[in-house]
Amino acid sequence: MRSRLEILPDEMLLEICRYLHSGDVLYSFFGLNSRFNQMTTFYWQHVSLHRTCYLKFLHIFTKILPQISSSIRSLVIFEIESPLYFQSFSKIHSYENLEKLTLVNWTDEKLFLFLETLHNMRNFHRIIIQALDLTESMKNGCFLEKVLSANENRLTHVMFDHESDAFCLTDNDKCNTNVYRNILQLDIELQTTKDLFRLYRMIPNVEKLHITFKRPWTKVICNQQQFFYLKELSVYAMSWFSTVEDLKTLLRISPVLENLSFVLVSHDYSLIDGQCVSALLPLTTKTFHYSICYQPSDLNADLNCETILQTWKSIPIAYSICENDKRIFLHTTNYQCNRLSLRSLFHKNMSVQKDSHVYNKVRHIHIYDTIALAEVFGIVQQCKFVLDLIISMRTLPPRNQVPVKTPKVLPYLDRLDFLSIQGNPSDTEYIEKILSVAPNLSAFSIDFDCLYKLLSNDDQTLLLYYLLSRRIVILCIRFENSLIDNLTNEHIHCIARIFSRVNHICFDLRNSKISIQSRLISSLLNYFPKLIVLSLYGKLSDEINSNKNALYEYLIEQSTGRLKNRDQFQIDYGNERVK
Predict the structure, then answer these.
(1) How far apart are CA 359 and CA 355, in angstroms?
(2) Which of 221, 336, 431, 437 has the fewest Cβ atoms within 10 angstroms?
(3) pTM reported for the whole predicted model
(4) Cα–Cα distance between 163 and 187 in angstroms, integer?
(5) Is the peptide bond before 398 cis (omega within 30 degrees of 0)?
(6) Is residue 517 part of a domain?
(7) Residue 234 domain-assigned (yes or no)
């Protein structure tokens, strides 16, 4: 008997769709018949096309989206896709039922123009902006106001993710700040506390405020409550040392605070004294989540852990201590923040904790000051649901490696999607151990010197190469103070023969002597036949800068038949950037 796809039940077909990207589902199944259209309704309502090749993207955009635009409730748009979306959002009644818009990898100048096309969408109340690049082309405050006022002030929830650049709102001193009473929730990274109090003038009705601070506190005199409707305050400040006075200032910004979350680092002993911290909490507090990395100013200070624990009798806590320099990592249980940033030296204590549920909400881990990859296992072991893992190797000054009793088995990290190794570790064999327990790892970021050493080592196991080949489809290579001055075809071939399934590549050349040249681009296109998106950051060569239009014809000539005309691909230029 001849089998057909239609004989499978809807449940099995939808299970198959889970293994496909949403763009592939729309391209493959839309319009076949009424049953398939009904079955894939979810993929009409929630659209993301960023892993779709250019010609498929054009087909979906021109043939399918016009038929389903009124059904779309959430939409993800990368900046590289923006030219066509500029046109479609300008049309009347397009995306009239859109509720949530996610914008990824945009610059402020291009996003400013795009926001001007968002009009008359009565259900569109939520915008998420990821990996925003703030340039010097406009003031941060003016750009933020453009976001808050989008869609005729209908937005209620505005969220910038933790990978977006930090806003400096004090550059807006000479501008007339408008009031946006529509905003009920704002997630944002700010430079200092001065920027926080500038927000009061802009969003007086905000009820939820999730803030990351990038730079040290700026002392602000606060004689009156600032946000009269603010009930939920979350503060993430891991880039500098807070004091008890800073915490007092934050707790005074609203008279109705109920839900509090703080992630801090400090030299101030008062911030690890439970009685002192409890005394600061407002009477309106309903939930309190607290995490602090404490480093004593005096390394000879006598720290009594039992005494510290006694002060936290009213609030359950967990803690780890680094015996080398007496640093303490203390937090309320269970750890509620989705981000965890820790020195690798805490691995020894965390690896012996028995409660496997303490860090279940952690999705993004940054482990820094690392000497060897083996040091991170004790921390990763506790975070089974992590999505992103970033490991930063220690540079200067050097320190001695602490002996590591590596766990025999890492947990099954089935949600881990992104791994970044910053630096050049000596024990690269542990990369294989991470890959082995992360079946859904798809994105890998690594320094070129580390990667080239890894791929050129004849002693590496074939399993490592197999896992890299099977897992990785998005590859980012940094040339951070790289030892090489020229990237040759031999280098590219060495990488391409292992990463055979890669469809997205990013080369970051900003901190190297290598410039972006036409020859480099054409080599990457030829060595990576499945490539969908190529991004290069760094200095543009004189040949590209002098005639950017000539790059189209050059790539068509050099692409060995892959690119036959200009309709098959698109080039986007920016400041020190080619995509």
Answers:
(1) 9
(2) 221
(3) 0.90
(4) 12
(5) no
(6) yes
(7) no
Q: What is the DSSP string of 171-199?
A: GGTTS-----TT--EEEEEESSHHHHHHH
Between the CA of residue 460 and those of 55, 270, 430, 466, 541, what are the distances in Å? Answer: 39, 50, 11, 11, 36
Q: Number of folded domains in the chain?
A: 1
Q: Tokens 């004090």 — which residue?
A: 170
Per-residue pLDDT, 43: 92
Residue 130 lies in a domain: no
Positive or negative torsion for Cα 427, 414, 189, 263? negative
**Could you tell me if 197 and 165 are in contact, meaning their C-beta atoms sit under 8 angstroms apart?**
no
| DSSP H helices in 243-319 | 244-251, 274-280, 305-310
The answer to whether 286 and 258 have CB atoms below 8 angstroms apart is: yes
Of the candidates 235, 228, 191, the residue with the CA atom closest to the CA atom of residue 209 = 235
DSSP 465: H
Local structure of 546: helix, strand or coil: helix
Number of Cβ atoms within 10 Å of the Cβ of 215: 16
Token pair, residue 180, equals 């946006």
Tokens for 562? 């892959």
Over residues 250-302, the pLDDT tens digits come to 999 999 999 999 999 999 999 999 999 999 999 999 999 999 999 888 777 77
Q: What is the pLDDT of residues 451-509, one digit of tens each?
A: 998 998 888 889 999 999 999 999 999 998 888 888 999 999 999 999 999 999 999 99
Give the pLDDT score at 146: 96
Residue with tokens 């911290």: 277
Residue 529 in any domain: the answer is: yes
- The one-letter amino acid at 320: S
Residue ranges for the chain with pLDDT beneath 70: 1, 92-93, 172-176, 219-225, 349-356, 396-409
- Residues 165, 170, 174: CA angle, nearest 5 degrees: 125
Residue 184: phi, psi to the nearest 5? -105, -25
Cβ contact 413:384 at 8 Å: yes
Crossing angle, helix 489-496 and helix 518-527, to 10 degrees? Answer: 30
Instruction: Read off φ and ψ for residue 25, nearest 5 degrees.
Output: -65, -45
Beta bridge mates, 237: 264
Question: Are 509 and 538 within 8 A, CB to CB?
Answer: yes
Structural domain containing residue 500: 442-578
Angle at 363 between CA 360 and CA 364, to 5 degrees: 135
Closest listed residue to residue 421, CA positions, set 394, 396, 402: 394
